[in-house]
């Protein structure tokens, strides 16, 4: 999956989100949704595995209690859902705290190898906090 862009959406009464058409074309049926700090990440099955593996850059050691606990935690925060015939994913299996965090008005953001679902007000606050200097530091060596 390679997704970009920002899209305003509303969750419906059944906690379903209609994915942007560009995203739907790249997803083959199943999406893994995981709460990550202030938002929810959405992955293809392969993308989710790559994401979890990337959290352990020196390789996952199942005999390391801390690694085992962290991997268990991230996987426990993850739900699998199918994209329905209308192009929607259901967030209904996610924890009630996720529903409170997101609210009804959300922003869906393509972030290269995954998409993110943000509460619209939180997204706007995060974007306003970025400055031209932040972008310049990323773009140019000084």
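Sequence proposed for the structure above (142 residues):
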């Amino acid at each position: 999956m390679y997704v970009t862009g920002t899209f305003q959406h509303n969750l419906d009464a059944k906690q379903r989100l209609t994915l942007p058409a560009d995203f739907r074309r790249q997803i083959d049926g199943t999406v893994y949704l995981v709460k990550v700090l202030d938002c929810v990440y959405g992955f293809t099955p392969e993308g989710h595995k790559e994401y979890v593996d990337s959290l352990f850059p020196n390789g996952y050691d199942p005999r390391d209690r801390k690694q085992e606990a962290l991997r268990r935690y991230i996987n426990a925060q993850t739900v699998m859902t199918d994209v329905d015939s209308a192009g929607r994913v259901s967030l209904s299996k996610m924890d009630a705290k996720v529903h409170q965090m997101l609210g009804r008005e959300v922003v869906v953001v393509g972030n290269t190898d995954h998409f993110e679902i943000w509460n619209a007000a939180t997204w706007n606050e995060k974007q306003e906090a970025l400055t031209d200097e932040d972008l310049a530091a990323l773009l140019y060596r000084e």
